[in-house]
Here is the input.
Amino acid sequence: MKTLPYILLLILSFNSLHAQHVTAKSDEFTVDLSDPKNLKDSSVPLINWLAPLNETIFLREAKLFVRLEITSPTPLKTISLTVREKSAAAVRGSQIITPKDGERYKMSFEKNIAMPEGVNVLELVVENADGVQSKSFRIVHVGETALADAAKLNRHDYAVLFITDKYDNWGGLVNPIFDGRALASQLEKIYGFKVDVLENPSQDQIFRKLREYSEKKYEPLDQVMIFFAGHGYFDETFKEGYVVMKESLKDDPGKTSYLSYNRLRNVVNSIPSEHTLLMMDVCFGGTFDDNIANSRGDDAYKEISQSEYIIRKLAVKTRKYLTSGGKQYVSDGVAGKHSPFAKRVLDALGSFGGTDGILTLTELWPYVEKLNPEPKLGKFGDDAPGSEFVFVVK
Here is the structure.
């Protein structure tokens, strides 16, 4: 008999909490079961991290800027911030914030928090008037020792290449598969990427593979590169670019047999890796960017360790694209000699990243920018200021 109120509480709380869509990986909720007043349906305070966005942060300087927005249908009671050592329970600092009268249902605040050297856990606990708590955290690596430790995190680079030179209804091409195989070889042998290559895939096969990458589990420093080579198409009526599929029809007014850049952009942006690069060697590839589709037709290496440089470059979320052209046709090249775009990308990868063994996307760009037509480099989706994609010699 004693278990019935407990079970009822969990059912009531779950139904209410489920409606709040608490989905962030670092978010948890708790209810104080020792207080009889909590044996009722309640709501969950929602925590929105505006800065930092990543769950794992790497700092050279011992100060972290935090910006938060907290909302709750039930009046807020307290917000507590605690910094503790990750490997121990020792508390390194804490602060309790009591919302003012005008902040009982929605509160925003910014703080600079001093972080001791080492690996810290910054924990945020928000409690409402019913005793229901939301918890969220960030892992913060500070200082040279912590940065060195962070470099030992399990980090992987992935690439999936969709390369097409044979079409059911379009003319064939001479270089996409030749280019893709060469690119896969360099990514694997020089930079240690785990590479999937799909040759002449159907649209269904492409989306099955993209779904597979969307369902992978990624570490904070993992990267994903997606590459398309083949025909591209731009519809002047719809003002939209497309990747031509192996089975794409010539007579297809609705373009349902094509892969639209709008859909591709949304699918790639949803892949849960922190760092994603989409590279396309297709005609009209630049129309992946809405600004181009609707138009009329210093990263110097400083004397720091390689591991710290990588961590610095991958400190924020990356969503970049690099295409072989803008709103025009691009050359497939001469058979057996690579397309002009692929040749320059392979040259960049073949540089082994220079003396530091790291090739950034910013450093790759000069290899291709003088091609005619001009390639396009930009950002999409959830890209954050200062983001980067890197190729690290293994």
Q: What stands out?
A: Residues 3-18 form the longest helix (16 residues). The chain has nine helices and 20 strands.
